[in-house]
Write a structure and sequence with these properties.
single chain, mainly alpha, Carrier domain-containing protein, globular, ACP-like_sf
Length: about 45
C-alpha cells in the first residue's frame, strides 16, 4: 500500500483530515497525529 492510500483509509475510517504538509514522515508521526486529532474531537 502506498502512504497516501493508508492516509486516505485512516481519514475515511476515523473521520479525520490529514494534510500532507503536516510533516508526517513516519508511521509513528501519523499515529501520533491521528491520536491528537481524535483526542481533540472528543473534547469538542
Amino acid at each position: 500500500m502506498d502512504v497516501f492510500e493508508v492516509m486516505n483509509e485512516i481519514e475515511d475510517q476515523l473521520d479525520v483530515k490529514i494534510e500532507v504538509e503536516e510533516g508526517l514522515n513516519t508511521v509513528g508521526d501519523l499515529v501520533n497525529f491521528v491520536d491528537k486529532q481524535l483526542s481533540a474531537s472528543k473534547g469538542e
